[in-house]
Design goal:
With about 220 residues, the protein is mostly helical. The protein is elongated.
Length: about 220
């Protein structure tokens, strides 16, 4: 059920309460609207996160965190938990972890959220969120110098992304795998990985990933 359907259903429940005296209908309507609010909060937070990433990619820019982003994700996770929506909670937990890792460079705070996200996503079969959490856990492991662990997590993220057809995400992961290979003195493998990633990104119109690949090739070469 999408948000429009939920709002329409809440209106129907309102009418039932007013005209039929069904008080339980109001509780049902509130839960439906909580789900709409949770989805909207998560979506708004993601928009703010994307704006930060686009600004960061501009040469010479110094993007700052929008103070509204974290409260939006926190509100979403609060509502999903109250609704018993483990899938929604997994996604919101991922975004909280991602914010701490990407915007604040705080892996210590990010990793528990990412691990919780991965656990919940795996439990409910949400491969997309599980793959996202694994990617960022791999980034954390890479930063900490745990290269084998980072490789394992990025490879598993890529496997899940291939299963769901998220090929631009596969290409993005391959950039990380190339950096890991280079750090392990496997330069030929690193460059071959970037070549494959470039082909995937180009085929799917993922220009932002193409730029990342070109930057990585310059650094590794």
């Amino acid at each position: 059920m999408d948000s429009e359907d939920r709002i329409r259903q809440a209106g129907t429940l309102y009418e039932r309460a007013v005209y039929s005296g069904d008080a339980d209908a109001l509780s049902h309507a509130e839960r439906i609207l909580d789900a709409v609010e949770a989805d909207t909060s998560l979506a708004r937070g993601r928009v703010l996160h994307a704006r930060f990433l686009l600004e960061r990619a501009r040469p010479g820019s110094s993007p700052t965190e929008d103070p509204a982003e974290l409260p939006l994700f926190q509100r979403a996770i609060e509502l999903y938990r109250a609704l018993g929506d483990a899938r929604g909670e997994a996604e919101a937990s991922f975004w909280i972890g991602c914010l701490h890792q990407v915007l604040r460079q705080d892996d210590e705070t990010a990793v528990p959220e990412l691990e919780r996200s991965r656990e919940l996503a795996a439990r409910v079969g949400d491969k997309q969120t599980e793959a996202e959490a694994l990617r960022h856990l791999g980034i954390s492991a890479h930063r900490a110098g745990r290269l084998d662990e980072a490789h394992e997590q990025l490879a598993e993220s890529s496997r899940l992304r291939r299963e769901i057809g998220a090929m631009p995400g596969v290409a993005a992961n391959m950039v990380g795998l190339a950096y890991i290979a280079a750090a392990q003195e496997r330069r030929t493998e690193a460059l071959a990985t970037l070549d494959e990633a470039h082909a995937i990104a180009q085929a799917h119109g993922a220009q932002a990933i193409v730029w990342q690949i070109e930057h990585a090739r310059d650094e590794i070469s």
